[in-house]
Amino acid sequence: MSASARIPHLVLTGLLLSPLAMAQADEDRPIEHILEPRAITDQIHYFFGSLENRTETNLGMNNNVGFVITDKGVVLIDSGPSHHVAQRIEQAVAEVTDQPITHVINLGSQDHRWLGNEYFLSQGAEILALERTAATQAEFARQHLDRLTDTLGDAAMAGTEPRPAPSPIAGDRHDFELGGVRFEMVHAGDAHFPGDILLHLPDHHVVFTGDVVYTERMLGIHPWSNPVEQLKAFETMASWAPEVVVPGHGEATDLATAQRDTGDYLATLVREVREGLENWETLDEVVARLADLPEFQHLRHYDDWHRMNVNRTYLFMEANF
Length: 321
Ligand SMILES: [Zn+2]
What we know:
Elements: H1 3-6, H2 8-17, H3 19-25, H4 31-34, E1 38-39, E2 44-47, E3 65-70, E4 73-77, H5 83-94, E5 101-105, H6 111-114, H7 117-122, E6 126-128, H8 131-152, H9 154-157, E7 173-178, E8 181-186, E9 198-201, E10 206-208, H10 227-239, E11 244-246, H11 255-278, H12 283-289, H13 302-320
Helix pairs in contact: 10-11, 11-13, 12-13
Zinc ion is lined by residues 63, 110, 211, 248-249.
């Protein structure tokens, strides 16, 4: 391993402070721009997804997708939202390395994390997903494909076939090594969707969090999300003390930023809602009490999501605790 591979924060500091990167993040960047790989180390790269919703400009690539180059092949981290984007991801990876994509890890079950699986399977790659992730993929496949097709149009989604991992892995964890790089796939709790996982690269002090962590933009809690376990998963991730956190959404960053934008937010929701339930506060009372949290108003989409998140956390915790 080269010296630079061991010091990812040097690369990251440049990314974090770049005014150009900040200006670019303020608009819905086109897919060509999203697919310009960003280096975290000389082996680890990612595509910085749009912070906006799914649009014809970003082709549904409003999430981060990563890749790790080894001597034995490239490990792709999530497969993108469609057959078409998967193909373009493959081309973008080929700009950086001659190694083929041999493995594709699925960190979750939301459309843009796995609808490209079929393309990579057809190219001979192996899909690595836990059983619990693949089960949620199968459950939501039709709904996600239909909604994405409504948003992007038939042409953008042509050829896309939902293919959950053909041989998913039992249990809560899968560790493997490829070309001298260790990979740890860890389910530390359900999060945005049941079966979301974290990917830890312990030799490089880098973690790809999938939808456990959002930075720059407000995370979303859906009726099927589990904010209590998501907080536990966040704490597990933090206990690894990574030097670089690649969130599911938001630019690669440090643990402190992930803590501020996701860890502290989830901790506040869970703590305050629990207190409300213990004091027999109604849903409306809790939503009114937490309606404005100035420490999180810097997050994009705060106005669209925050009150809904309080509402859903209340309903979830009322039913489950
Ligand atoms: Zn997501």
